[in-house]
Write a structure and sequence with these properties.
about 35% strand, 2 helices, about 200 residues, 5-stranded mixed β-barrel
Length: about 200
């Protein structure tokens, strides 16, 4: 029997677990933060929350909170003002298009980040900073490796930090919303492990 043409699989198979295919992308949507949908910790290594991209689809977001040796992860928090009327070509603050965008690219080195800009931040502080930013957000863009374990609730994004060895595929969180004066801004959360060096790329 030629299985490739007849496609008959009726006998036991010698199957081994297969990894979920992943790809780099930006996931854009709104953050679910409430008493029902809190930022929660997982295994002492990640914070998790959900981003809703519409049509009943949401992505679980994993944010690392410690390095592989157990030390706090390093973070740099940056902000940039956006054009409220959309004159500039660099992501004008207009109505966002929600979804997952595999054509995304982000490089810590190329946008000017250096190791000296980062400092260790504990998990509690990271959670507080994220919650404060999300409370004022209009929408968010999450950069990292997306995966799909099936169904509308099986989607997720992780590796939301500097990814040594992956050209133009660094992870980050960009939170869009008003600043203290009500002007539109993009607030960036950049993360890296203590042992990684941006200049080594």
């Amino acid at each position: 029997m030629n299985f490739y043409t007849e496609h008959h699989y009726l006998d036991r198979r010698q199957l081994t677990p297969a990894a979920t295919p992943e790809r780099y992308a930006a996931v854009v949507g709104t953050v679910e933060i409430s008493t029902e949908h809190e930022i929660v910790g997982r295994n002492g290594e990640h914070l998790q929350f959900y981003v809703d991209i519409g049509n009943g689809v949401r992505y679980q977001v994993d944010v690392n909170i410690q390095s592989s040796d157990g030390q706090p992860i390093e973070m740099y928090l940056g902000a940039e003002h956006l054009d409220p009327v959309g004159v500039t070509p660099d992501e004008p603050f207009g109505a966002p298009q929600y979804g997952a965008f595999p054509a995304a690219a982000l490089s810590y080195a190329r946008i000017g980040l250096t190791d000296a800009m980062f400092a260790p931040v504990d998990a509690v502080r990271i959670q507080q900073q994220l919650e404060a930013a999300f409370a004022q957000s209009t929408f968010v863009a999450i950069y990292g490796m997306v995966f799909d374990d099936g169904g509308p609730n099986g989607k997720g994004i992780h590796e939301t930090h500097f990814n040594a060895g992956r050209a133009n595929e660094d992870g980050a969180l960009a939170v869009y919303g008003p600043d203290a004066a009500g002007k539109p801004q993009r607030k960036w959360f950049f993360f890296k492990f203590a042992e990684d060096r941006i200049a080594a790329r």
